[in-house]
């Protein structure tokens, strides 16, 4: 396992930050390569010809793509001092289910709540409320989704802990708050206070400014939503 | 692992048929429970309160949901005489990538090509063409996506081998054909000729009649697309 590890990422992408966090949790040394998403490098396109997106994990000469696929690859390739997925098959299935739930349901509902207006926004906010409620419920009695330590669901939920909070500020709405989601907010506090998590987040002010700049163009449909 | 296994499925769902196929490949005895999707059973809603969808795999008292999550659970729980995912972490990552590609990209492009009209249909057909081309390429030099034997990608691609062929007939379009996809068509032939696969497919005429009946309502938006 002595082959070189490179991560092609983007500072503001929760998906490449997931991979960064998993590598650090596993104490895997790696070289980070920042991609300019407006002008993607030939290497990124070579390694991810299907989606042409970050993150790409390059292990030796083998590229692995899609953040959730990469997280499982990291867990199966390096022992490190932690496991990203639990050992028990049923608990593994539950973790995979919640990761899929975050990616397929929650992410787009929260994202679209922040980047839409009027009736559409109202509908997305209703959806987000329902989805966040289920996540709140899942956390009951636990410090992290992974139990006492950070696991795959916590890593995948980095978007909720950081990006969603910044986005709701930009949009001037309140999706996640202490009153409605006391357990989720406690988790956010715990998660963001971990040193290794802090190292894998963008600067708050930089992200805020980035989304503020994009807001008008996105709402006017002059820029793509993603 | 002596606990009872039950599968809540629907005859026409490629997703529950995936699980059926995996259980049979692993020689796991199970009880199949057909769900009426127009009138879901209280048990289905109890076991899958989040999505209220088939398939649900009940192992003892523990429900596992989402077909791809269930496939991994089956692979990790029962040894059987085959492995659904390869052993090597990189090959596992590649298989997971293609399964995600089929579910996130190919499925909706093919489905929507068959259930739309005019400009929208043209766009979905263009997308399907691109996505199917990549799948054709992935199969080069291989009998199955899994190599010499059926693996996770083959199981997930059951939709392409059977449902897509029926759907394109109903829609009167040609997405997958011998001329454009000789390798994919050879794979379809190989896949559909396996006895265990045949046991996990709906009757062709029944599925054809089902979609024919639905066609008008779906195109008129009188029925939901999914």
UniProtKB/TrEMBL annotation, chains A, B:
Substrates-to-products reaction catalysed: RX + glutathione = an S-substituted glutathione + a halide anion + H(+)
Gene3D superfamilies named among the record's database cross-references: 1.20.1050.10, Glutaredoxin (3.40.30.10)
InterPro entries, A to Z: Glutathione-S-Trfase_C-like (IPR010987), Glutathione-S-Trfase_C_sf (IPR036282), Glutathione_S-Trfase (IPR040079), Glutathione_S-Trfase_N (IPR004045), GST_C (IPR004046), GST_C_Tau (IPR045074), Omega/Tau-like (IPR045073), Thioredoxin-like_sf (IPR036249)
Record-annotated GST C-terminal domain positions: 88-225
GO MF terms held by the record: glutathione transferase activity
Pfam families: GST_C, GST_N
Membrane among keywords: no
Keyword Transferase: yes
GO biological process: glutathione metabolic process
EC number, as in UniProt: 2.5.1.18
CC annotations in GO: cytoplasm
Similarity comment text for this entry: Belongs to the GST superfamily.
Protein name per UniProt: glutathione transferase
Organism the protein comes from: Dioscorea zingiberensis
Lineage: Eukaryota, Viridiplantae, Streptophyta, Embryophyta, Tracheophyta
């Amino acid at each position: 396992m002595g082959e070189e590890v490179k991560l092609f990422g983007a500072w503001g992408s929760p998906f490449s930050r997931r991979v960064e966090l998993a590598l650090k949790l596993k104490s895997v040394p790696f070289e980070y390569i920042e991609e300019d998403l407006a002008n993607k490098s030939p290497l990124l396109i070579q390694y991810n010809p299907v989606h042409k997106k970050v993150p790409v994990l390059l292990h030796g000469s083998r590229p692995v793509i899609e953040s959730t696929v990469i997280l499982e690859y990291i867990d199966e390739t390096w022992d490190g001092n932690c496991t990203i997925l639990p050992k028990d098959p049923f608990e593994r299935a539950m973790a995979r289910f919640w990761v899929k739930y975050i990616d397929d349901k929650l992410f787009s509902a929260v994202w679209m709540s922040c980047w839409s207006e009027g009736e559409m926004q109202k509908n997305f906010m209703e959806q987000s409320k329902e989805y966040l409620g289920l996540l709140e419920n899942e956390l009951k009695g636990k410090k992290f989704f992974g139990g006492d330590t950070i696991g795959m669901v916590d890593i995948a939920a980095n978007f909720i802990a950081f990006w969603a909070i910044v986005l709701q500020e930009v949009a001037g709405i309140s999706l996640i708050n202490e009153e409605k989601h006391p357990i989720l907010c406690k988790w956010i506090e715990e998660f963001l206070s971990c040193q290794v998590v802090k190292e894998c987040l963008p600067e708050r002010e930089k992200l805020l400014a980035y989304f503020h700049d994009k807001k008008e163009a996105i709402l006017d449909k002059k820029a793509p939503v993603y």
